[in-house]
């Protein structure tokens, strides 16, 4: 059962990698995520050769990882299908990718907790992966802080009436996209 889950996860990771290689917006973030995915696949495969796969708790963790990857893949699909919107609302999509990475980080932490007798190679791979996920979170946090700073600086110079009109336009567009999606 766990072998099947690991295989499904490998397929999802492969699809995500192919999609991410085509994305041209949010380039830095996508490259960081691509690096994580390229290391996650072999880590899951390596763990598949461990006795850990027999542990029912680890099977639950694989199901959670599968869910996190599906969520991330949906965000990636949206970014690929709507690059302009993804670029304009990059903070929203960066946050969604960050949430997916948080789920992967939880998987790494819980896997390390239940797998006390992992092979040295598996432990090293998980630690390297965890460092990449941590760096990804920091990168997104810094990007979001920079965006907030830039927005606050640019909004400070815009007349209130223009801001009100922009909000109304954004709400109208938001309603349109909900109807068309």
Name some characteristics of this structure.
about 180 residues, mainly alpha, 7 helices
Write the layout of secondary structure elements.
Blueprint: H1 2-22, H2 27-48, H3 56-81, H4 83-88, H5 90-114, H6 120-155, H7 160-180
Question: Can you describe what's shown?
Answer:
There is one protein chain. The radius of gyration is 19 Å and the shape is elongated. Helix 1 runs parallel beside helix 3 and helix 5 (90-114) runs antiparallel to helix 6. The longest helix is centred in the C-terminal third of the chain and has 36 residues, at 120-155. Helices cover 87% and strands 0% of the residues. It contains seven helices and no strands. The chain is mainly α and 181 residues long. The mean pLDDT is 82. The relative contact order is 0.12.
Number of helices: 7
Assign the structural class, choosing from mainly alpha, mainly beta, alpha/beta, alpha+beta, or little secondary structure: mainly alpha
- What would the principal axes of the Cα set say about the shape? elongated
Terminal-residue CA separation: 36 Å
- Mean pLDDT equals 82
H/E order of the elements?
Answer: HHHHHHH
Roughly how much helix do the residues carry, as a percent range?
A: over 70%
> How would you name the oligomeric state of the polypeptide chains in this document?
single chain
pLDDT < 50 runs, ≥5 residues: none
Q: Give the biggest beta sheet.
A: none
Tally of extended strands? 0
Radius of gyration: 19 Å
